[in-house]
Write a structure and sequence with these properties.
4-stranded mixed beta sheet, globular, 5'-nucleotidase,  domain 2, alpha+beta, single chain
Length: 253
């Protein structure tokens, strides 16, 4: 009990004691400025640095390791771009490889791509982390035909997101007009399996209408699927490249 009341006594003493004393302030004063500096201990003598250094060296070595080659500059823009197309196609391939069933198409939200381009030349592991720094998981959402249309209308209203080659539509106002998947118009009665990040499936990007839909959780980070795809291409002696002919999202009249 005494331990709980001690802080209160201390506070009361601090409040009361100043009231028992008189303070006299100077009638005038000349301000003086002082420059204060903080002496930093050299990094090589900092004990914490000594602990972290080996791990940082190992991490830097891993992040700087080259995992593939980009054949030509892949840049990001709306409504369609080489970088967005490559990401969506790579995710379609890798997600299909681990899914329990067929996947109709893959989508990646535009804001999820965090760098403006992948330059031509060697690509490091760290560059993929820069491209996709978030720990978003890849999921496959089952949508009715009407929900699928609504989802791609959302994408159109935002000016276009990366979509895999199976998708084609005309961006007309805020609508995905003449939407087709694998060359076929959307069937309102059909069910479509669309692969996308859990951020979107959980309602991000104004896609709250997807939250309660059935889904398959792949258990894989989106980033790891991209890394796997680059490594797979490298094993096959192939570079990272993209199909970009402006035929996925087409500007309407």
């Amino acid at each position: 009990m005494q331990l709980r009341t001690l802080p209160l006594y201390a506070v009361l003493l601090m409040v009361m004691l100043p009231s028992c004393s008189k303070y006299f302030l100077p009638s005038d004063a000349e301000p003086t400025n002082y420059r204060m500096t903080v002496a930093e201990e050299p990094a090589d003598t900092d004990p914490l640095h000594a602990i972290i250094a080996p791990y940082k060296t190992a991490l830097d070595r891993k992040m700087n390791s080259v995992i593939g080659e980009v054949s030509g500059r892949l840049f990001k823009e709306k409504p369609e771009s080489p970088l967005g197309n490559w990401v969506a196609d790579a995710l379609q391939t890798e997600t299909q490889a681990i899914s329990k069933g067929a996947i109709d198409a893959s989508v990646q939200n535009y804001g999820g791509l965090r760098i403006p381009e992948l330059p031509a030349g060697p690509i490091t592991l760290g560059k993929i982390y820069e491209l996709m720094p978030f720990d978003n998981m890849q999921v496959i959402v089952e949508m009715s035909g009407s929900i699928t249309q609504r989802f791609f209308d959302l994408i159109a209203a935002d000016g276009g997101w990366p979509v895999s080659k199976e998708v084609q539509f005309v961006l007309k106002g805020k609508r995905a007009d003449r939407l087709t998947i694998s060359g076929k118009p959307i069937d309102p009665q059909a069910t479509y399996r669309i692969a996308l990040p859990d951020y979107i499936a959980n309602g991000g990007g104004d896609a709250d209408f997807l939250i309660d839909l059935p889904r398959e959780n792949t258990g894989q980070f989106v980033r790891d699927l991209l890394i796997r795809h680059v490594q797979r291409l490298t094993e096959q002696g192939l570079p990272v490249s993209a199909i970009s002919n402006g035929q996925r999202i087409i500007w309407g009249d």
